[in-house]
Amino acid sequence: CGRGPGGCRGGRTDMALRCAASLAAGRQPRGPRREGAMRWSSAAKPSAVKINEKASREKILTLESMNPQVKAVEYAVRGPIVLKAGEIEKELRKGIKKPFTEVIKANIGDAHAMGQRPITFLRQVVALCTYPNLLDSPSFPEDAKKRARRILQGCGGNSLGSYTASQGINCIREDVASYIERRDGGVPADPDNIYLTTGASDGISAILKILISGGGKSRTGVMIPIPQYPLYSAAISELDAIQVNYYLDEENCWALNVNELRRALNEAKAYCNPKVLCIINPGNPTGQVQNRKCIEDVIHFAWEEKLFLLADEVYQDNVYSEGCQFHSFKKILYEMGPEYYNNVELASFHSTSKGYMGECGYRGGYMEVINLHPEIKGQLVKLLSVRLCPPVSGQAAMDIVVNPPVPGEESYAQFIKEKESVLNNLAKKAKLTEDMFNKIPGIHCNPLQGAMYAFPRIFIPSKAIEEAKAHKMAPDMFYCMKLLEETGICVVPGSGFGQREGTYHFRMTILPPVEKLKILLEKVKDFHIKFLEKYA
């Protein structure tokens, strides 16, 4: 409304006329207020405004009104046990006495938080990209400067602070494609099939989002390994898809058996439309590394049953056991011939967070998607464009993972020394953890062939199971909570990853420094023996 000649709004003038007419008729003027409503006046004195604390209205967003799919989401890696660990840390800082002096968070694969040193070259390039004035500094090697300049040239305004294309910076996607070709022995990779992502998780969630459709018995079923990384079950719940479990063979070093895939698929067809098969290789939380024959069998199964394959390969650098080797699904698919390579739809994922880098906080990652329908490719780019672009510093970090120093460059010697030191150290800790767990009565740990976790099976006496039920806890949650409260060690119960009925496990990272890891394992040993004595 515009103001009237006297500077009053037209509505106020009309109200004044009505008030005058009411007074002339001997009536009290009535304003436009609804009965019981309080009109706020900025001129009112604070003492004149009384707030009835009990009259606060109901919240719009409550547990009953919220999105039920979000409420169904569970993420054990940062679940109740971790919240409890945070409470204990606060108590320790306040000086409250405990049987330990610190909480050891062995629940998550956060390498730098556990003391792993960053790779110098990666940090140099990201620093140069972040503050280009350093490009004139003699403190930085020329090979780092060369990469930083190339990345900055791909950024709007030569700045890491600008948005990028939704698929990511073009020159980095080209570097990813070149890396995949080198890794896979010359198997061609197209930069147009590469999508830079906010960690691998972002890519996995995006692909699942575009795959899931239908209702009732035609609702999309997503086949996931049990045990699994809880990202998968969380994303499936959030998207209201159907989770189809297939069980890894614990008695055979967590092997993947195609007969088990077939059982799970055939049973699921009765209540959903299974069309996605997720593979984690090397395994999380189980640490197995799939051999070539197994991958060939899985690809044939996906081709035969017309399943879209998701290959989570973020631990591809983390292979420790002799006789084990990482094989990418893309490479094996190509080598199986054109009937497979030109038809099986495959999305593969990698990240800066794991491997020898451990750069979790940069949230860098990529996915390569092959054999996607051209129209779906456009839909995927549209979906990714909603989040504008992945963090540009994470894109830069991903570039160094796929484009590291090479022999002849000045940073190569230091880079390869740091990389091998991290991986050799992890291999040593994997063997140490396996050996020490298998010396404890009532604990069995399969070989840690790869990744960065142990997933030991633990014996829990029936008396402890009954007490867990009384506390409305899963038995392994009860065990892990007791472990935390008595030793300060935070691990994740196996029930958060899925396990066969009647078996109990926990997941523990092997990332702590060797001496600290030895202390941790000794504490677990002492706790477990006391636990068995108490509840046997």
UniProtKB/TrEMBL annotation:
EC number: 2.6.1.2
GO cellular component entries: cytoplasm
Gene3D superfamilies according to UniProt: 1.10.287.1970, Aspartate Aminotransferase, domain 1 (3.90.1150.10), Type I PLP-dependent aspartate aminotransferase-like (Major domain) (3.40.640.10)
Catalytic reaction list: L-alanine + 2-oxoglutarate = pyruvate + L-glutamate
Record bears the keyword Transferase: yes
Requisite cofactors: pyridoxal 5'-phosphate
Keyword Transferase: yes
Official protein name in the record: alanine transaminase
Annotated organism of origin: Pycnonotus jocosus
Name of the gene encoding the protein in the UniProt record: Gpt2
